């Protein structure tokens, strides 16, 4: 049999049962194509009778068929895929792709749009533009798109055992969960072919088990006999999208793209609507991405309802996204609506002007252009448009334009929104007229019967900006007494003003009052900490810093650490400064350059190397040290997926070199160490770990592939003097005769590469193998040459311990 996706969605025939509100939708067939075939001219009346009988019989027989064991041939299901044998003389029943869309409810309730009523429903519901776009899926394909794929009937299979096994699988597969389903299919690997698996997947879609069909499809793709089937993938993606399972729908959608095929227009449409139906973070961005691909990759022209629903979703998005990105996407949608000759609604114009007014740099020319187009389309500027204009002009301080727009707003006679007063106050604050801003605030109180929270925030901000202490204090008191919240933004503004004016006592009072009346925030704490450090009250500043650090909702940041560090350094409290510095290193905070110079000097007195909190990237010195340590036997542990890797630093207790090297390596890689490995100097263990990070994947792939030590093929490029020095310090030793011995693990081929690299540096060596370990010996003048190469990179405390015998050094004096 053949399952076809080549359906005409331009219209549909709905037959409703008198006993139920549900309807069975059947897409019409192409009469002209049938009439051109003599076989079908004489049987047209028979065809219509069979269709009518099938539709009437559907309701009574469907429940019985769903409970009955899968028979050898599939019967017609009005809501799902229909099957028919290729050799059947009868006209095949048609596949209805939009039936799932008719069953589901609204997608996004908060979006408002055009109210549509569906045939067969006794009452109309306002589902908004997203629902409108969903209903338009049936009309997406205006031309026939061939996506046929063959599914043979059970009776067509020559093997009786295959027919029985397929029937058994079709019965068992939908009843199992994912893991059991995979095990069940794996047990049938010996005989299952692509045609069999396709039959099972289509059967699952027919009985509305679309997730099970997806699992069968995913299992198919992992088999070595699988060949991509565009028709199957398209149908599966469409059914999953209509059920709002956008993640699985996107997987199948990506499979189509990865095969170099362009998905059908309906698949694009369905996936966009599925994303818009979800409130999950990031779904709007994905909907925009698919919409853009639909136009740029597929060359399709989406329906007006899809344009409108995506545009309104951009306008309704609150936070979490870039308004600049939303503006670019909205302009792209507007461009597509205009260029395809569709009707541009009034809300599109007003929404686009609003988005432009939200930008930091307002494009006034574009706003004026939109206003002209709006007038040509016969739309009057609404209150929302005028308020958006007020906002745009206020950002640039255009008082004249603001006043002119204000008059336009008054002439509309539709009430003045509170935001209009706020924008007008902002405009006068831009030109330095705080008195006029205060006058507008009082007008706002009279007009609205009381100021809004946003109004209080704006006027306090304006007065603090111009350091009008008495006015600001008076209005803040009014704000507190009004009982409106939140108060925190106004307290922050007044604290900043006190700090700038040096009114530290008033700042402390405002801080205490803020803690009593508001939820504490890191910003107000930082301002208070700045004040304490500036007046030299470091004891209290330390207490406030500790309170911030111990409070999970506040915590410290780079600013608070730098503030306290500066206070301790300026006052000569070096011990406390070092503690703050260690905390900043642990948290990877950037230290201000002037402070770093002082920290360098203090820590150099203790012979402690300074580690700046850089980004998570190994320095050149760290990379060379790692190469040397890995040659010496340092281990790397990887997770099962080989995505994250952890370095295990291990030192021997009975080695004098390791006792000294351990401290140095701990300090060298401190920012990369696991938090549990950050011990005090006197209790550093002989074994500690780095954090698990993907950056170590390079070293894991080259030095520890398959969990075993290996010598990289390009090791000769990485054997720098620095790396050789750490190899020697970590796993080498000096013999009693003054020779140098290096320990190495790996294959014989890798050892030969190391020996060849040493010979390239004019050093001859001997190799011995003991068990799985190779020993490389440098004797006489060769050990002297080796020491001359690595000597500058060996730790001072280890030079006497590792330096070759004096007899071996005669070669240096001879040269």
UniProtKB/TrEMBL annotation:
Q: Return the PROSITE patterns for the record.
A: PPR (PS51375)
> Which top-rank group of organisms is this from?
Eukaryota
What InterPro entries does the database record attribute to this sequence?
Chloro/Mito_RNA_Process, Homing_endonucl, LAGLIDADG_dom, PPR_rpt, TPR-like_helical_dom_sf
Which regions does the record annotate with the repeat PPR?
A: 452-486, 521-555, 557-591
* Homing endonuclease LAGLIDADG domain residues: 623-786
Give UniProt keywords alphabetically.
Answer: Repeat
Which Pfam families does the annotation name?
LAGLIDADG_2, PPR
Task: Write down the NCBIfam families for this protein, in alphabetical order.
Answer: PPR
Would you tell me the protein name for this molecule?
Pentatricopeptide repeat-containing protein At2g15820, chloroplastic-like
Q: Which gene encodes it?
A: LOC104747400
